[in-house]
Write a sequence for this structure.
């Protein structure tokens, strides 16, 4: 993984396989304090304490094709090697919350990468899941809520329709990505 | 600045086009891109973007592009699977450029790109 945005995509895929109906992505950056935080929260099936304790071990996975799972370990590593911290909490049947904090100016902090592209992909490729995406920086706050978008579009037009996709691409760029510009 | 008002206007515009589109959705080709940790790390996202972009540019309405989990051959990722007329074609070690070629040669013109298929290397 060379971009934090790809970690976000990867962890969100976990939420999707956990049967989440709503996935909340939060990106917060405080340039004054040189800190940023990424949070992924879902209302999926969650996990018990025993699984939670093992989940950042690369030799733990829910998939059946391999005995290794690198998603959470890589995300954890990305934070801990960049002057930050990682946390995960979960409740069986309620959902899971994963959060990683970084020192923005740390020499080993991975660039955020194409966060807007990842948001676009998640929102347009998962017709049965809702996403709430929030970006908060010193410069302001922006939100994208697919429940709101679906309310406007109605049932017959999917978020993945090419025209809607083109709209969302610009919407995400102007309302979310522009808040941090090229600074992350 | 893009606002949700524009989305409302877009919806009205699209509603009138929906009827003629549903007619064209027979003979659907399904394309799946592996999007687990292995796929993402190997560059599946740009591949997916290239497929969507090419399908959009060529207005391919009878093609559905989606993502899937780990296909099980992590070292051959990014993997793109094409399902057509009951047949499955597995393209391996994909790049955005290869993906565009698959759309043009295979999806549009019906000639699978043999050299990218699994087992051909």
């Amino acid at each position: 993984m060379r971009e934090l945005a790809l970690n976000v995509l990867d962890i969100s895929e976990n939420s999707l396989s956990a049967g989440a109906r709503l996935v909340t992505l939060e990106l917060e950056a405080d340039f004054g304090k040189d800190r940023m935080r990424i949070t992924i929260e879902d209302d999926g099936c969650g996990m018990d304490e025993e699984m939670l304790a093992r989940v950042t071990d690369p030799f733990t996975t829910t998939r059946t094709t391999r005995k290794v799972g690198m998603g959470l370990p890589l995300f954890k590593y990305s934070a801990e090697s960049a002057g930050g911290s990682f946390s995960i909490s979960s409740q069986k049947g309620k959902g899971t919350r994963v959060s990683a904090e970084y020192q923005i100016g740390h020499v080993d902090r991975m660039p955020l990468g194409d966060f807007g592209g990842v948001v676009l992909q998640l929102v347009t490729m998962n017709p049965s899941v809702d996403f709430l995406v929030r970006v908060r920086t010193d410069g302001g706050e922006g939100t994208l809520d697919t429940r709101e978008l679906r309310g406007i579009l109605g049932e017959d037009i999917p978020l993945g329709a090419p025209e809607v996709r083109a709209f969302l691409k610009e919407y995400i760029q102007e309302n979310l990505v522009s808040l941090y510009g090229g600074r992350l | 600045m893009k606002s949700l008002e524009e989305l409302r206007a877009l919806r009205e515009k699209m509603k009138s086009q929906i009827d003629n589109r549903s007619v064209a959705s027979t003979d659907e080709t399904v394309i799946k891109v592996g999007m687990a940790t292995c796929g993402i790390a190997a560059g599946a996202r740009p591949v997916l973007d290239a497929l969507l972009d090419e399908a959009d540019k060529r207005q391919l309405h009878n093609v559905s592009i989606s993502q899937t989990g780990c296909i099980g051959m992590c070292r051959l990722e990014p993997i793109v699977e094409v399902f057509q007329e009951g047949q499955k074609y597995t393209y391996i070690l994909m790049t955005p450029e290869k993906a565009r070629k698959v759309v043009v040669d295979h999806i549009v013109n019906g000639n699978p790109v043999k050299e990218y298929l699994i087992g051909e290397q």
The interface with chain B takes residues 1, 6, 9-10, 13, 17, 63, 65-66, 69-71, 74, 114, 117-118, 121, 125, 148-149, 152-154, 156-157, 161-167, 170-171, 174-175 of chain A (CB under 8 Å). Helices of chain A lie at 4-17, 49-54, 71-80, 115-125, 146-153, 162-175. Chain A has one domain: 4-179. The domain at 4-179 of chain A is CATH 3.30.565.10 (Heat Shock Protein 90).
